[in-house]
Amino acid sequence: MNLQQVGQSKSSNGYGRRKYEKGATKSDSKIPPGKSNTSGVAEVTGSKSGTYESPSHDRLVYVTTCLLGHHVEVQVKNGSIYSGIFHATNTEKDFGIILKVARLIKDSSLQGQTSSVETVSKATSKTLIIPAKELVQVIAKDVAVTRDGQPSESHYDVHQDIMVDSVISQSRHVEMGRELQRWVPDDDYPQCPELENIFDGSWNRGWDQFETNKTLFGVNSTFNEELYTTKLEKGPQMKELEQKALRIAKEIEGEDTHDLHLAEERGRYHDNFDIDEETRFSSVYRGKGVDDSGYDEDEETRLDSHNSETFGDITGSVIKKLGEISGRKGNNGAQTWSNFSKMDHSQPSLSNTGVDLGRSRSDDHAKQLASELSTQNYSFSDGESRIQNSASDRNETSGSATEENQQAEDVHLSKSEDLRPPHNLKNAVSVSEKGESLPNTTSYTPSHIISKALEKTVLCGEFTGTSASGKSNEETKVANSRVRVGSATSSGSDNVGDVAVSSGPGLSPSSSVGSLSSERSTLNPHAKEFKLNPNAKSFIPSQNPVRPRSPVSDGSFYFPANVSTVPNMPAMPMGIGVGTTFAGPQPMIYNPQVAHMPSQAYFHPNGPQYGQLLGHPRQVLYMPSYLPETPYKG
Amino acid sequence: MATVEAGGGGGGNPEELAVGCMLSIRTTLGDEFEGQVVTFDRSSNILVLQEAPSKAGPGPGPRRNIRLLKANYIKDFTFLGHADDPLDPNNCFLDLAALQAREELAIRQAEADAERIGVGVTSEAQSIFDALSKTLPVRWDKTVIVVMNEVRVSSPYNPDSVVGGTPAANERVKKVLDFERKRLQLRSSSGQ
Questions:
Q1: Where is region (Disordered) located (chain A) (predicted)?
Q2: pTM surpassing 0.90?
Q3: Is ipTM > 0.90 here?
Q4: Strand, coil or helix: what is B75?
């Protein structure tokens, strides 16, 4: 009725004076008649023409409205106190109150009990209505009673829970900025010991983590800072050096840079809105000159070469196989050889030699192998598993080229047993899968095989199981050592004997090995020695040499760099990286009777040969003196 | 109603005189406090007082502690002085949307908090729960504190009453519990 009367004004702009039906829920009801007033608030006081209590009433209403949504404590007649969120009040009548999520925090019936031990908390009620008769007082803390006429500020409150630090601290766009205050823990709040301010203070905290760890858990630390960083020479020059370093650092930091990220770090923000977020904040630099496309093509070759290098000799395995294979696949061999010629690129020496040898021998060996392998292409991938048996001949020739093509090979090879861990073959297989025609076999597969394999003829007399017992000893020898041309699968053990060492005639494995040793090896010279574990389960190779080749993914073709450089226990299925099947503990260095291998680093019979993707017990190589079927005794 | 009269002479607008006065009041329930009168509403018999808050709160604008008191519970009061009207009539705006939002937020928050408060547990247990919750995920299961969903700590919340979970988790909870109890003891003995 009078100007002051606050009419209902459902102003949606949130600014406004709204009807004092407080409580959002009641907004629609009970709208007292009256002009809707949208003007400023001044009406609260001032006009006296209204009802007597109108101004005060209005004030009350106003203040009460300010409390909406606020956390309050309400005391009731009997002295109990409830705490909850102020939801509504009946302003028209007698100001009964409604609280939400309320809980009794002080029960008047428990008189005189202030001991914290006794108080028991109560459940919360979703809505609590306190009639005016019961109401004694309502207490609200930290209420913002007046605003400076900027309703938008309320957003500050509303969004407070999701404010981001950067927004808060960057005072440039917070007109409602606030001073950041250092957090101090509440005194009366139980603090977690784990959060104690151990790190307060300077760099020299006076707390030694290693000591603590030792006392708490008995852990002795072997931490030596110098392992991870350059040793600082503390001396008289230190100060100067420090200053110099500081100066240089400043210079660098002061430099201008085109790089967005660096610029940001140095505090030079660039407000160019054309740059999208990804560019601004992502860490991948997509600049000129970064070209990933060419990778694939060269990848294989490179890998192969690398492999060859490391494993080199595996191609040798071919050799051994050769013996075994006996396939008279001379012709094949020939063919394969052609393939092999490719090998050149990777492993120069051995491979070539291998190849050559192969050629030379192709007859004999080839035959052998060929027969066996028929179209096998031993692709000996460097040592790893890729041993392609390219037609036998190769294999034969040199231990180096043990390329065995897996496919047929595997089968055949398996016969040949002793071949080195079949996994080599596996590789071969994969390669060979390509089909019988050796020549077709991927041009470079042979290469890899041979290449590396050749190189590293580790041999040392390891005979990779090429069944050749005896037959292609030479090759086998060579081959063995290198190649484990896996295909042999199995039995190898039989061949062990013979195979053992024959450092193939063609290649003097040792020598080649020797020469190869200069090649880079990824074997870890520091690897732990193998300790024989007498309790390990023995490995009993399956007597059936023909084992269907499992798909290449027998184990991962994974050549961990530091595979143990240990000669394996014979018959120990060694799979590097393959992680599976080992009957016993990791075969590490094994047994004294074994002929000493020249560069342990390279290849161990049975050992983690890279070519061997062993997943399964395959007869690995043998130690010369070791009888193949001796079950592996841990 | 004595309040009103105390505020000033009769007639007129007694409540207006009362506005701005500093009073010290004692209630029938035993509470005592001081505050400045914001308003007094006769019809509902409510006196609105304001007190300066103990610490500055976040956000813009002045913050105060507000107390609504039913006048009939005033046992006695003392007039302390007179001051300006605490409410600036030109500056009273209400942003309803914000208020509603605030309320919703507060409700959500309160519900979340309610989860953390055990029902029917002693305050000591609650303190322990709170302490554990600082670094471990804990929840209440009636009166049992469940840590990491596996370790259960039941009354009396001693290291002995920790059961369940993997040995490592169990140990950890015991340790933290132990530590917390020590702190609590220390705190309570050093004077609350």
A1: 1-55, 286-311, 325-444, 465-548
A2: no
A3: no
A4: strand
